[in-house]
């Protein structure tokens, strides 16, 4: 009776060139589908995080204005993609949205001031847009200074 040991010893080790090409082709197809979706989800995450940070900055400005006599203001610099919270000419916080989240800042006004009651001046029609690649988030500030953000 012939032994199977000899046949097993001579079995080929490794993969053929055709098998490697098939596996690499399948891997390329999977990556072609996954990479753009990853970039899109990363852009969505960045714009949402930037919108949250900016909404928190505006809420802080409103709260500071309501508790201090001088009021507070937020200045928007679309060229530098940043928002700056000031209280009586002192910079309290500088939010560098472009550097921190990689988003571009666009606004319909260059500043928003809050009085001692927490009401916004210059808030009428203030729309703030944060963009990264194909994703965008928009914050709208009401006449009273309240921030309306999309549901996250």
Describe this structure in words.
The chain has about 150 residues and is of the alpha+beta class. It has a domain at about 45-150: minor pseudopilin epsh fold. The chain has helices spanning about 5-10, 15-65, 95-100; strands spanning about 70-75, 80-85, 90-95, 105, 110-115, 120, 125-130, 135-140, 145-150. The chain is built from 3 helices and 9 strands. The strands form 2 sheets. A 5-stranded antiparallel sheet has the order 3-2-1-5-6. The protein has a 4-stranded antiparallel sheet with strand order 4-7-8-9, with helices on one face.
Provide a brief overview of the structure.
The chain is built from 3 helices and 9 strands. The chain is α+β, with helices and mostly antiparallel strands and 152 residues long.
What's the CATH H-level homologous superfamily of the domain at 45-148? Answer: minor pseudopilin epsh domain
Content-based structural category: alpha+beta
CATH class category label of the domain at 45-148: Alpha Beta
Based on the coordinates given, report the CATH architecture of the domain at 45-148. Answer: 3-Layer(bab) Sandwich
What is the string of helix and strand elements? HHEEEHEEEEEE
The amount of beta strand, in percent, is: 25-35%
End-to-end distance? 73 Å
Backbone CA Rg: 28 Å
Quaternary assembly = single chain
Give me the side-by-side strand order of the main sheet.
3-2-1-5-6
Number of strands: 9
Mean pLDDT comes to 88
Tally of separate helices: 3
Unreliable runs, pLDDT <50, ≥5 residues? none
């Amino acid at each position: 009776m012939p032994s199977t040991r000899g046949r097993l010893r001579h079995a080929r080790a490794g993969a053929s060139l055709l098998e490697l090409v098939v596996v690499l082709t399948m891997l390329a197809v999977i990556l072609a589908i996954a990479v753009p979706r990853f970039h899109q989800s990363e852009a969505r995450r960045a714009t949402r995080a930037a919108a949250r940070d900016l909404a928190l900055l505006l809420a802080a400005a409103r709260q500071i204005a309501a508790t201090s006599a001088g009021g507070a203001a937020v200045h928007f610099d679309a060229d530098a993609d940043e928002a700056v919270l000031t209280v009586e000419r002192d910079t309290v916080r500088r939010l560098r949205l472009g550097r921190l989240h990689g988003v571009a800042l666009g606004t319909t006004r260059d500043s928003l001031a809050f009085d001692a009651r927490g009401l916004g001046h210059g808030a009428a029609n203030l729309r703030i847009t944060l963009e990264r690649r194909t994703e965008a988030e928009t914050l709208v500030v009401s006449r009273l200074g309240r921030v309306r953000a999309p549901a996250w």
